[in-house]
Amino acid sequence: MGLRMLDDLTVGDILIRYRDEVTPTKRGAFRETMAIRVLLRHALSKVPLSALTVARVAAHRDARLKTIKPASINRELAIYQHAFEVARRTWGIPIHENPFSLVRKPNTGRR
Question: How far is 69 from 30, CA to CA, in rounded Å?
């Protein structure tokens, strides 16, 4: 098991398990399920956990900023961030740092 697991699992695998196990327990389950469906279409979902870096997450964020608003990006990043926290703390997946919590969130212009 261990670090070899990080080569075999992708970002999408984490999102799918999160969608199937955690999302149904939430009040906004339907909306979050739809959001995860969109996230699974992106190239980031194919990235093995062993290759996931803050720089890669930042590049994904920057690419998304060209097509959607900062507030939408922040909602997407929140789903990724929580899914990875659950993977680390509850599922025992050996991710040392959550790259989604380390990346800067775009400014929405709200104060």
Answer: 21
**Ranges in the chain, pLDDT < 50:** 1
Q: Are 32 and 23 in contact (CB under 8 A)?
A: yes
For position 42, what pLDDT does the model report? 95
Element spanning 12, H or E? helix 11-21
pLDDT at residue 4, rounded to an integer: 81
CB atoms within 10 A of CB 48: 13
Structure tokens at 54: 């803050």
Contact 103, 54 (CB under 8 A): yes
Which domains are delineated in the chain? 4-100 (1.10.150)
Count how many Cα atoms sit within 13 Å of the Cα of residue 21 in the half-sphere of its side chain: 12
pLDDT the model gives residue 76:
96
